[in-house]
Amino acid sequence: MSVAIRATQVVDDQRLLDLLDAGERERAERRADPHPFVTAHALLRRLVADETGMDPRAIDFERRCATCGTDRHGKPHVVGMRDVHVSVSYGERMAVAAVTRLGEVGVDVEDLESADFDGFGSVTLDPTEAARLAHLHGDALLGVRAQLWSRKEAILKATGHGLVVDPSQVVVSAHDAPAELLEWKAAQHLPGPMQVSDLDVGRADHRAAVAVLTSRPLTVRLQRG
Ligand SMILES: CC(C)(COP(=O)(O)OP(=O)(O)OC[C@H]1O[C@@H](n2cnc3c(N)ncnc32)[C@H](O)[C@@H]1OP(=O)(O)O)[C@@H](O)C(=O)NCCC(=O)NCCS
Question: Is the pTM of this model over 0.90?
Answer without folding.
Answer: yes
